[in-house]
Design a protein that fits this description.
This protein is mainly β. Helix content is about 10%, strand content about 25%. It has one helix and five strands, in the order βββαββ. The longest helix is centred in the last third of the chain and has 7 residues. The two termini are about 35 Å apart.
């Protein structure tokens, strides 16, 4: 999967990643921490295998929201929310 960096604030992919926490200081310097790597990062990140866009759901979140397809004797009966599944 390829991503294009649209922001030029100096953090690269981290600007739009849900794992990043970026704090801007009064002297215009920045502190950036990645919750996935559990450490502070320096420089502009251009490639990351743990990158997760802010507006996109994780695999776990998609599974949690997915509706179950109800089938009985080979016939599709419809969909039901996960909390109603047996």
């Amino acid at each position: 999967m390829k991503f294009t960096i649209k922001s030029d604030s100096g953090h690269g992919l981290c600007d739009s990643c849900r794992n990043a926490t970026i704090a801007k200081m009064a002297d215009e310097s920045h502190i950036m921490r990645c919750s996935e790597f559990e450490r502070f990062l320096k420089g502009k990140i251009i490639e990351c295998n743990e990158y997760q866009p802010v507006g996109r759901l994780s695999d776990y979140e998609m599974e949690d929201k997915a509706w179950i397809l109800e089938v009985k004797k080979g016939r599709i009966l419809g969909f039901k929310p996960p909390e109603q599944s047996e």
